[in-house]
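Hi both,

Apologies for the delay on this - the queue was longer than expected. I finally got the zinc ion-bound model through. Below you'll find the protein sequence and the ligand SMILES exactly as submitted, and right after that the structure tokens for the full complex including the ligand.
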Amino acid sequence: MFPLLWQNSTPLNPRKEEALPHSVETHPLPSERIGTSRSLTVHRFGTPGTRPKVYIQAGLHADETPGFLTAHHLIRRLASARVLGEVVVVPVANPVGLSQVVKGTHVGRYALNDGGNFNRGFADLAEAAQARVQGRLGPDAAANVALIRGALRDAHAEVRPGDEIAAMKHALLGLALDADLVLDLHCDMEAVVHLYTGDALWPELADLAADLGAEAVLLASDSGGPPFDEACSATWWRLSERLGAEGPVPPACAAVTVELRGKADVDDARATADAEAILRTLVRRGVVEGDPVPLPDPACEATPLAGLARVIAPASGVIAFRRSVGDRVEAGETVAEIVDPTAKDPDAARIALTAPVAGLVMARSNVRFAGRGDLIASIAGAAALPASGRGLLFD
Ligand SMILES: [Zn+2]
């Protein structure tokens, strides 16, 4: 199994270890170049093997900073909480991307060695797990879940990642794949809080959405990629489709991509509030001891990811926004104008970019100059749009 080396496991609160186990592990990644080495830092709370297990990571897209600060506050709170299940937190999930600074610009979404999106291409373990459990499922859903989790761990252990980035993705998936709840903390360019998760996981995750004040929840069963959350969760509905006749296969890993607003929305007040919202979810689910508090009213209904309409720049120019994130727009309403400052006639220098559908301005670009074809804004509409022939997620 890769990797076998878990180094420097350090109990941080040895006097209270029985009540508040918290350890920090350093997980070395294989070096690609002489003299370089990177590692993942893993915070563990509670007792390994107890349920429910929760896995939380931040910064898989390494230039998305809000999750780092939220993870920091969450770790601080978990360290003094009584964890009844198990919580694993990787506060910096992508040290490779974190190191990619090119002439003063941090490139954290794509790997500079091959251009790959760090949140795509995770291993699909469904087939390998299926081969291990076929003919062995029965009427007991909990027994099936335990059997499949074991098969997933075994299938994962057989994968041999080819390089440092593959090893990093492999390690992250290995930490998460048998969790009951997985939160992958990201952010958009400029955005309201929104979630991406599976059709089968709604309304199960409605409490988290309400507590975080999510203004959009986008559902899909196969968004393309696959992104990290689906690598953890979609296995379960794929196995249910293939093996459901043998016995129940529930969606046993509730994985969700949590978009914590925009890249610059980073401050202690918001990060503390987000960490507290996550903690309340853990209390509600019996992972952390405490008294559940009443949920706020949900800020939105879930909508299909296939209903997310993109506003694309038809020409290059300055982006002059007319609507902000969080605004509701009607179809045909102007969201932004593209301005060509070189136009001979300044009165003919503007192109109106209109909302393709009615919905919420969920996210918009955080730069103000567009190239032709650039994504300017995303509108969460209520109904699925005709298939575009490409994956539902933008790369
Ligand atoms: Zn991201």
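Main takeaway for now: The chain has two domains: 7-300, 306-380.

I'll put the files on the shared drive as well.

H.
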